[in-house]
Amino acid sequence: MLDLTSHVLPVCFYGVFVDGKKPRLSNPLQEGEKLDFSNGFILHDDIIGARPGQTFKTNKGYQYRIEYPDLDTYISKVRRKVTPVYGSYANSIVSLFDIHVAPPTSVEDSHEPLEILDAGTGHGSVTLHLARAIQAANPPLPDLELQAPGSSRKSASDGFLERSSSVDEERAQVWHDWRQSRRAVVHSVEISPVYSKHAEHKVVAGFRRGLYSPHIDFYIANVDDWIDGQLGQRKLESFLNYVFLDMPSSHRYLRKVVDAMKENALIAVFVPSITQICDCVQEINANSLPLRMEKTLELGEGISNGRIWNVRLASKRARDPIEESSMIHRRLGDEDKALQEETDTQSEISSTTTPQEEDSSLPLLEAGPEEGGTSKEPVMICRPRVGERLIGGGFVALWRRTAS
Ligand SMILES: C[S@@+](CC[C@H](N)C(=O)[O-])C[C@H]1O[C@@H](n2cnc3c(N)ncnc32)[C@H](O)[C@@H]1O
Protein backbone atom coordinates (compact mmCIF):
# COMPACT_ATOMS: atom_id res chain seq x y z
CA MET A 1 0.00 0.00 0.00
CA LEU A 2 1.06 3.57 -0.50
CA ASP A 3 2.96 5.02 2.36
CA LEU A 4 -0.05 6.27 4.35
CA THR A 5 -0.28 6.19 8.10
CA SER A 6 -2.84 3.67 9.20
CA HIS A 7 -6.05 5.14 10.53
CA VAL A 8 -9.28 3.80 11.79
CA LEU A 9 -11.32 4.80 8.79
CA PRO A 10 -9.59 3.26 5.78
CA VAL A 11 -12.45 3.91 3.40
CA CYS A 12 -10.73 4.61 0.13
CA PHE A 13 -7.59 6.03 -1.30
CA TYR A 14 -7.19 8.39 -4.17
CA GLY A 15 -4.08 9.19 -6.20
CA VAL A 16 -3.31 12.12 -8.42
CA PHE A 17 -1.91 11.42 -11.86
CA VAL A 18 0.21 14.03 -13.51
CA ASP A 19 1.28 13.93 -17.14
CA GLY A 20 2.74 17.42 -17.31
CA LYS A 21 -0.69 18.93 -17.88
CA LYS A 22 -3.60 19.08 -15.45
CA PRO A 23 -3.46 16.73 -12.47
CA ARG A 24 -6.24 14.17 -12.48
CA LEU A 25 -7.70 12.52 -9.39
CA SER A 26 -8.15 8.76 -9.63
CA ASN A 27 -11.11 6.84 -8.35
CA PRO A 28 -10.44 5.09 -5.05
CA LEU A 29 -7.91 2.36 -5.80
CA GLN A 30 -9.34 -1.16 -5.73
CA GLU A 31 -7.96 -4.51 -6.76
CA GLY A 32 -9.16 -5.61 -10.18
CA GLU A 33 -10.07 -2.08 -11.30
CA LYS A 34 -8.38 0.02 -13.96
CA LEU A 35 -7.84 3.69 -14.58
CA ASP A 36 -8.90 4.81 -18.03
CA PHE A 37 -7.12 7.61 -19.85
CA SER A 38 -7.64 8.90 -23.37
CA ASN A 39 -4.37 7.19 -24.22
CA GLY A 40 -4.83 3.81 -22.58
CA PHE A 41 -5.29 2.46 -19.10
CA ILE A 42 -3.32 1.57 -15.96
CA LEU A 43 -4.34 -1.28 -13.66
CA HIS A 44 -5.08 -0.35 -10.06
CA ASP A 45 -3.24 -3.54 -9.05
CA ASP A 46 -0.05 -2.08 -10.50
CA ILE A 47 -0.42 1.10 -8.50
CA ILE A 48 -1.39 -0.43 -5.15
CA GLY A 49 1.87 -0.78 -3.24
CA ALA A 50 3.59 2.00 -5.19
CA ARG A 51 5.33 5.02 -3.72
CA PRO A 52 4.39 8.64 -4.42
CA GLY A 53 6.47 10.03 -7.27
CA GLN A 54 6.62 6.67 -9.08
CA THR A 55 5.77 6.64 -12.79
CA PHE A 56 3.55 4.26 -14.69
CA LYS A 57 2.87 3.60 -18.36
CA THR A 58 -0.53 3.02 -19.85
CA ASN A 59 -0.98 -0.05 -22.00
CA LYS A 60 -0.30 2.27 -24.95
CA GLY A 61 2.99 3.49 -23.49
CA TYR A 62 1.99 6.97 -22.18
CA GLN A 63 3.66 7.87 -18.93
CA TYR A 64 2.01 9.22 -15.76
CA ARG A 65 3.42 10.02 -12.35
CA ILE A 66 1.41 9.30 -9.21
CA GLU A 67 1.35 11.71 -6.27
CA TYR A 68 -0.69 12.21 -3.17
CA PRO A 69 -3.51 14.65 -3.79
CA ASP A 70 -2.91 17.83 -1.82
CA LEU A 71 -6.00 19.11 -0.01
CA ASP A 72 -6.66 21.90 -2.49
CA THR A 73 -6.47 19.60 -5.51
CA TYR A 74 -8.51 16.96 -3.74
CA ILE A 75 -11.31 19.37 -2.82
CA SER A 76 -11.60 20.73 -6.33
CA LYS A 77 -11.32 17.35 -8.11
CA VAL A 78 -13.21 14.89 -5.94
CA ARG A 79 -16.76 14.20 -7.07
CA ARG A 80 -19.09 16.87 -5.75
CA LYS A 81 -22.77 17.35 -5.11
CA VAL A 82 -22.55 20.99 -4.11
CA THR A 83 -20.09 23.78 -4.93
CA PRO A 84 -17.22 23.69 -2.46
CA VAL A 85 -15.35 26.49 -0.80
CA TYR A 86 -12.08 26.22 -2.73
CA GLY A 87 -8.95 25.38 -0.80
CA SER A 88 -7.32 28.81 -0.88
CA TYR A 89 -10.50 30.46 0.47
CA ALA A 90 -10.99 27.75 3.09
CA ASN A 91 -7.42 28.28 4.24
CA SER A 92 -7.97 32.03 4.56
CA ILE A 93 -11.20 31.50 6.49
CA VAL A 94 -9.65 29.04 8.92
CA SER A 95 -6.58 31.22 9.42
CA LEU A 96 -8.89 34.11 10.39
CA PHE A 97 -9.84 32.05 13.45
CA ASP A 98 -6.16 31.87 14.43
CA ILE A 99 -6.64 28.50 16.12
CA HIS A 100 -3.76 27.16 18.18
CA VAL A 101 -4.06 23.81 19.85
CA ALA A 102 -1.52 21.95 21.95
CA PRO A 103 -1.20 18.18 21.91
CA PRO A 104 -2.44 16.35 25.00
CA THR A 105 0.13 15.70 27.68
CA SER A 106 0.42 12.79 30.07
CA VAL A 107 -0.85 15.08 32.81
CA GLU A 108 -4.60 14.86 33.08
CA ASP A 109 -6.07 18.16 31.99
CA SER A 110 -9.56 19.26 32.73
CA HIS A 111 -9.94 21.84 29.99
CA GLU A 112 -13.27 22.05 28.28
CA PRO A 113 -13.02 20.79 24.71
CA LEU A 114 -12.61 23.26 21.88
CA GLU A 115 -15.85 23.07 19.88
CA ILE A 116 -16.46 24.42 16.40
CA LEU A 117 -19.75 24.66 14.56
CA ASP A 118 -19.45 24.36 10.78
CA ALA A 119 -22.78 25.03 9.00
CA GLY A 120 -23.63 23.95 6.32
CA THR A 121 -21.32 21.09 5.62
CA GLY A 122 -21.95 21.23 1.85
CA HIS A 123 -19.01 19.56 0.10
CA GLY A 124 -17.06 19.31 3.36
CA SER A 125 -14.21 21.54 2.27
CA VAL A 126 -14.16 23.91 5.24
CA THR A 127 -14.95 20.93 7.48
CA LEU A 128 -11.72 19.26 6.36
CA HIS A 129 -9.71 22.43 6.77
CA LEU A 130 -11.09 23.00 10.27
CA ALA A 131 -10.39 19.41 11.27
CA ARG A 132 -6.82 19.77 10.04
CA ALA A 133 -6.42 22.82 12.27
CA ILE A 134 -7.62 21.11 15.45
CA GLN A 135 -6.69 17.43 15.13
CA ALA A 136 -3.38 17.81 16.97
CA ALA A 137 -5.31 18.57 20.16
CA ASN A 138 -6.73 15.06 20.32
CA PRO A 139 -5.18 11.99 21.92
CA PRO A 140 -3.73 9.30 19.62
CA LEU A 141 -6.32 7.05 18.05
CA PRO A 142 -6.89 3.73 19.81
CA ASP A 143 -4.61 1.02 18.46
CA LEU A 144 -6.98 -1.87 17.97
CA GLU A 145 -7.01 -2.37 14.23
CA LEU A 146 -10.34 -0.84 14.90
CA GLN A 147 -12.78 -0.24 12.14
CA ALA A 148 -14.66 2.83 13.22
CA PRO A 149 -18.38 2.25 13.47
CA GLY A 150 -19.08 3.64 10.05
CA SER A 151 -22.77 4.07 10.67
CA SER A 152 -22.32 6.25 13.73
CA ARG A 153 -24.41 9.34 13.32
CA LYS A 154 -26.03 11.83 15.61
CA SER A 155 -29.20 13.61 14.82
CA ALA A 156 -30.43 16.84 16.31
CA SER A 157 -33.50 15.19 17.73
CA ASP A 158 -32.16 12.12 19.52
CA GLY A 159 -28.49 13.01 19.97
CA PHE A 160 -27.28 9.47 20.65
CA LEU A 161 -25.14 7.14 18.58
CA GLU A 162 -26.81 4.56 16.45
CA ARG A 163 -24.37 1.72 15.99
CA SER A 164 -24.21 -0.94 13.38
CA SER A 165 -25.06 -4.27 14.99
CA SER A 166 -22.11 -5.85 13.18
CA VAL A 167 -19.64 -3.77 15.15
CA ASP A 168 -18.06 -5.61 17.95
CA GLU A 169 -19.25 -4.11 21.24
CA GLU A 170 -15.86 -3.94 22.85
CA ARG A 171 -14.34 -2.11 19.94
CA ALA A 172 -17.34 0.19 19.85
CA GLN A 173 -16.79 0.97 23.52
CA VAL A 174 -13.13 1.80 22.92
CA TRP A 175 -14.11 3.99 20.02
CA HIS A 176 -16.77 5.69 22.11
CA ASP A 177 -14.29 6.31 24.94
CA TRP A 178 -11.80 7.81 22.52
CA ARG A 179 -14.44 10.13 21.12
CA GLN A 180 -15.37 11.21 24.62
CA SER A 181 -11.73 12.02 25.32
CA ARG A 182 -11.38 14.37 22.35
CA ARG A 183 -10.13 17.80 23.28
CA ALA A 184 -11.29 19.40 20.07
CA VAL A 185 -14.12 18.61 17.68
CA VAL A 186 -15.77 20.04 14.57
CA HIS A 187 -19.57 19.76 14.57
CA SER A 188 -20.54 19.83 10.91
CA VAL A 189 -24.25 20.46 10.41
CA GLU A 190 -26.04 20.06 7.08
CA ILE A 191 -29.74 20.14 6.31
CA SER A 192 -29.51 17.91 3.25
CA PRO A 193 -28.99 14.18 4.00
CA VAL A 194 -27.57 13.68 0.51
CA TYR A 195 -24.90 16.35 0.91
CA SER A 196 -24.10 15.34 4.48
CA LYS A 197 -23.60 11.68 3.63
CA HIS A 198 -21.55 12.51 0.56
CA ALA A 199 -19.32 14.85 2.54
CA GLU A 200 -18.86 12.40 5.41
CA HIS A 201 -18.50 9.09 3.57
CA LYS A 202 -16.93 10.18 0.29
CA VAL A 203 -15.18 13.52 0.60
CA VAL A 204 -13.87 13.49 4.18
CA ALA A 205 -13.46 9.73 4.54
CA GLY A 206 -11.73 9.60 1.15
CA PHE A 207 -9.02 12.11 1.96
CA ARG A 208 -5.91 10.23 3.04
CA ARG A 209 -8.03 7.31 4.15
CA GLY A 210 -10.08 9.30 6.61
CA LEU A 211 -7.18 11.03 8.33
CA TYR A 212 -9.44 13.82 9.63
CA SER A 213 -12.73 11.92 10.04
CA PRO A 214 -12.31 11.09 13.75
CA HIS A 215 -12.17 14.78 14.62
CA ILE A 216 -15.51 15.61 13.00
CA ASP A 217 -19.09 14.82 14.06
CA PHE A 218 -21.57 15.07 11.20
CA TYR A 219 -25.21 15.93 11.80
CA ILE A 220 -28.16 16.06 9.45
CA ALA A 221 -30.17 18.96 10.81
CA ASN A 222 -31.31 22.48 10.35
CA VAL A 223 -28.70 24.50 12.22
CA ASP A 224 -31.40 26.20 14.33
CA ASP A 225 -32.70 22.84 15.53
CA TRP A 226 -29.18 21.59 16.13
CA ILE A 227 -28.45 24.55 18.41
CA ASP A 228 -31.71 24.02 20.30
CA GLY A 229 -30.88 20.33 20.74
CA GLN A 230 -27.36 21.01 21.95
CA LEU A 231 -28.38 23.77 24.34
CA GLY A 232 -31.10 21.48 25.70
CA GLN A 233 -28.60 18.67 26.34
CA ARG A 234 -26.08 21.03 27.86
CA LYS A 235 -28.58 22.81 30.10
CA LEU A 236 -28.29 26.05 28.15
CA GLU A 237 -24.54 26.38 28.72
CA SER A 238 -22.84 28.08 25.81
CA PHE A 239 -20.18 25.80 24.37
CA LEU A 240 -18.92 27.00 20.98
CA ASN A 241 -15.47 28.52 20.56
CA TYR A 242 -15.77 29.08 16.81
CA VAL A 243 -18.64 29.21 14.36
CA PHE A 244 -18.50 29.16 10.60
CA LEU A 245 -21.70 29.90 8.67
CA ASP A 246 -21.86 29.20 4.95
CA MET A 247 -25.55 28.93 4.10
CA PRO A 248 -28.15 30.92 2.25
CA SER A 249 -29.42 33.81 4.42
CA SER A 250 -26.79 33.21 7.08
CA HIS A 251 -27.82 36.43 8.82
CA ARG A 252 -31.09 34.78 9.89
CA TYR A 253 -29.20 32.29 12.06
CA LEU A 254 -27.09 34.80 13.97
CA ARG A 255 -29.60 35.34 16.75
CA LYS A 256 -29.82 31.64 17.50
CA VAL A 257 -26.12 30.87 17.10
CA VAL A 258 -24.95 33.66 19.36
CA ASP A 259 -26.67 32.00 22.35
CA ALA A 260 -24.44 28.97 21.96
CA MET A 261 -21.19 30.95 21.64
CA LYS A 262 -18.89 31.38 24.60
CA GLU A 263 -17.73 34.85 25.46
CA ASN A 264 -14.87 35.82 23.13
CA ALA A 265 -15.81 33.09 20.65
CA LEU A 266 -15.41 33.99 16.97
CA ILE A 267 -17.97 33.67 14.21
CA ALA A 268 -17.14 33.90 10.51
CA VAL A 269 -19.79 34.23 7.81
CA PHE A 270 -18.88 33.48 4.19
CA VAL A 271 -21.15 34.90 1.48
CA PRO A 272 -20.92 35.62 -2.23
CA SER A 273 -21.85 39.29 -2.05
CA ILE A 274 -20.99 42.21 0.20
CA THR A 275 -24.64 43.13 0.63
CA GLN A 276 -25.10 39.86 2.54
CA ILE A 277 -22.47 41.04 5.01
CA CYS A 278 -24.52 44.24 5.29
CA ASP A 279 -27.56 42.04 6.12
CA CYS A 280 -25.58 40.52 8.99
CA VAL A 281 -24.50 43.93 10.27
CA GLN A 282 -28.09 45.10 10.19
CA GLU A 283 -29.35 41.95 11.91
CA ILE A 284 -26.78 42.37 14.69
CA ASN A 285 -27.69 46.03 15.12
CA ALA A 286 -31.44 45.51 15.00
CA ASN A 287 -31.31 42.80 17.67
CA SER A 288 -28.45 44.29 19.72
CA LEU A 289 -26.58 41.01 19.40
CA PRO A 290 -23.40 40.81 21.48
CA LEU A 291 -21.10 40.59 18.48
CA ARG A 292 -18.27 42.97 17.67
CA MET A 293 -17.07 43.14 14.08
CA GLU A 294 -13.40 42.26 13.79
CA LYS A 295 -12.97 42.51 10.04
CA THR A 296 -14.49 41.95 6.62
CA LEU A 297 -12.35 40.50 3.85
CA GLU A 298 -12.92 40.05 0.17
CA LEU A 299 -11.45 36.76 -1.00
CA GLY A 300 -10.62 36.22 -4.63
CA GLU A 301 -8.00 35.12 -7.07
CA GLY A 302 -4.93 37.33 -6.88
CA ILE A 303 -5.89 38.89 -3.53
CA SER A 304 -3.31 37.19 -1.37
CA ASN A 305 -4.54 37.82 2.16
CA GLY A 306 -7.97 39.17 1.35
CA ARG A 307 -8.93 42.78 0.66
CA ILE A 308 -10.17 44.55 3.75
CA TRP A 309 -13.61 46.16 3.51
CA ASN A 310 -15.20 48.64 5.78
CA VAL A 311 -18.73 47.44 6.57
CA ARG A 312 -20.58 48.95 9.50
CA LEU A 313 -23.47 51.05 10.56
CA ALA A 314 -22.75 54.67 11.32
CA SER A 315 -24.64 57.77 12.31
CA LYS A 316 -23.94 61.17 10.80
CA ARG A 317 -22.89 64.11 12.92
CA ALA A 318 -24.10 67.66 12.38
CA ARG A 319 -22.36 69.19 9.44
CA ASP A 320 -20.18 72.19 10.22
CA PRO A 321 -20.27 75.31 8.04
CA ILE A 322 -17.24 74.24 6.01
CA GLU A 323 -18.83 70.91 5.19
CA GLU A 324 -22.09 72.67 4.37
CA SER A 325 -20.25 74.93 1.95
CA SER A 326 -18.58 71.82 0.52
CA MET A 327 -22.02 70.35 -0.21
CA ILE A 328 -23.16 73.58 -1.81
CA HIS A 329 -20.08 73.68 -4.02
CA ARG A 330 -20.70 70.13 -5.01
CA ARG A 331 -24.30 70.83 -5.89
CA LEU A 332 -23.15 73.78 -7.97
CA GLY A 333 -20.68 71.56 -9.81
CA ASP A 334 -17.60 73.23 -8.32
CA GLU A 335 -16.03 69.80 -7.87
CA ASP A 336 -12.42 70.86 -7.43
CA LYS A 337 -13.23 73.05 -4.47
CA ALA A 338 -15.59 70.50 -2.95
CA LEU A 339 -12.98 67.77 -3.18
CA GLN A 340 -10.39 69.96 -1.51
CA GLU A 341 -12.71 70.69 1.36
CA GLU A 342 -13.66 67.05 1.72
CA THR A 343 -10.00 66.17 2.04
CA ASP A 344 -9.65 68.74 4.79
CA THR A 345 -12.72 67.50 6.65
CA GLN A 346 -12.03 64.84 9.24
CA SER A 347 -14.35 61.99 10.24
CA GLU A 348 -17.79 63.14 9.27
CA ILE A 349 -19.15 59.79 10.27
CA SER A 350 -19.15 58.39 13.78
CA SER A 351 -19.34 54.65 13.95
CA THR A 352 -21.81 52.74 16.08
CA THR A 353 -19.48 49.79 16.10
CA THR A 354 -15.76 50.43 15.57
CA PRO A 355 -15.05 54.15 15.69
CA GLN A 356 -11.31 53.71 15.39
CA GLU A 357 -11.68 52.11 11.99
CA GLU A 358 -13.00 54.99 9.95
CA ASP A 359 -10.78 55.66 6.99
CA SER A 360 -10.76 59.43 6.75
CA SER A 361 -8.82 59.41 3.49
CA LEU A 362 -11.99 58.55 1.57
CA PRO A 363 -14.28 61.35 0.43
CA LEU A 364 -17.78 60.87 1.83
CA LEU A 365 -19.72 61.41 -1.36
CA GLU A 366 -22.74 59.55 -0.04
CA ALA A 367 -23.39 62.28 2.56
CA GLY A 368 -27.12 62.89 3.03
CA PRO A 369 -28.91 66.23 3.47
CA GLU A 370 -29.52 66.08 7.24
CA GLU A 371 -29.89 69.28 9.22
CA GLY A 372 -28.03 69.53 12.55
CA GLY A 373 -27.77 66.99 15.42
CA THR A 374 -27.12 63.28 15.05
CA SER A 375 -29.38 61.25 12.84
CA LYS A 376 -31.23 58.43 14.64
CA GLU A 377 -31.28 56.36 11.45
CA PRO A 378 -27.88 54.76 10.97
CA VAL A 379 -26.39 54.63 7.49
CA MET A 380 -24.55 51.68 6.06
CA ILE A 381 -20.88 52.18 5.25
CA CYS A 382 -19.74 49.57 2.78
CA ARG A 383 -16.67 49.98 0.63
CA PRO A 384 -13.18 48.58 0.13
CA ARG A 385 -10.78 50.11 2.59
CA VAL A 386 -8.42 51.10 -0.21
CA GLY A 387 -11.09 52.84 -2.23
CA GLU A 388 -11.09 50.46 -5.18
CA ARG A 389 -13.68 48.17 -6.64
CA LEU A 390 -13.00 44.55 -7.36
CA ILE A 391 -15.11 41.93 -9.04
CA GLY A 392 -15.43 38.24 -8.15
CA GLY A 393 -14.61 36.10 -5.13
CA GLY A 394 -16.53 35.91 -1.89
CA PHE A 395 -16.68 37.87 1.33
CA VAL A 396 -15.96 36.69 4.82
CA ALA A 397 -16.76 38.72 7.92
CA LEU A 398 -15.54 37.94 11.40
CA TRP A 399 -17.23 38.93 14.67
CA ARG A 400 -16.27 38.31 18.27
CA ARG A 401 -18.82 37.43 20.93
CA THR A 402 -18.78 40.07 23.61
CA ALA A 403 -20.26 39.90 27.11
CA SER A 404 -24.07 40.06 26.91
C1 LIG B 1 -22.45 26.75 0.00
S1 LIG B 1 -22.82 25.24 0.72
C2 LIG B 1 -21.58 25.06 1.94
C3 LIG B 1 -20.22 24.70 1.39
C4 LIG B 1 -19.29 24.20 2.47
N1 LIG B 1 -19.06 25.20 3.50
C5 LIG B 1 -17.99 23.69 1.95
O1 LIG B 1 -16.93 24.05 2.50
O2 LIG B 1 -17.97 22.91 1.01
C6 LIG B 1 -24.24 25.66 1.70
C7 LIG B 1 -24.84 24.44 2.40
O3 LIG B 1 -25.70 24.87 3.43
C8 LIG B 1 -26.75 23.93 3.55
N2 LIG B 1 -27.85 24.56 4.31
C9 LIG B 1 -28.76 25.46 3.87
N3 LIG B 1 -29.58 25.84 4.86
C10 LIG B 1 -29.18 25.16 5.97
C11 LIG B 1 -29.64 25.12 7.32
N4 LIG B 1 -30.67 25.86 7.74
N5 LIG B 1 -29.00 24.31 8.21
C12 LIG B 1 -27.95 23.55 7.80
N6 LIG B 1 -27.47 23.55 6.52
C13 LIG B 1 -28.07 24.33 5.63
C14 LIG B 1 -27.08 23.61 2.09
O4 LIG B 1 -27.78 22.40 1.96
C15 LIG B 1 -25.68 23.58 1.47
O5 LIG B 1 -25.16 22.28 1.45
TrEMBL record:
GO terms for biological process: tRNA methylation. Residues 28-61 form the TR61B FKBP-like domain. Gene3D superfamilies: 3.10.330.20, Vaccinia Virus protein VP39 (3.40.50.150). GO terms for molecular function: tRNA (adenine(58)-N1)-methyltransferase activity. InterPro entries: SAM-dependent_MTases_sf, TR61B_FKBP-like, tRNA_MeTrfase_Gcd14. Its EC number is 2.1.1.220. It is an enzyme of class 2 (transferase). SUPFAM superfamilies: S-adenosyl-L-methionine-dependent methyltransferases. Residues 331-340 have a biased composition (Basic and acidic residues). Pfam families: TR61B_FKBP-like. This is tRNA (adenine(58)-N(1))-methyltransferase catalytic subunit TRM61.
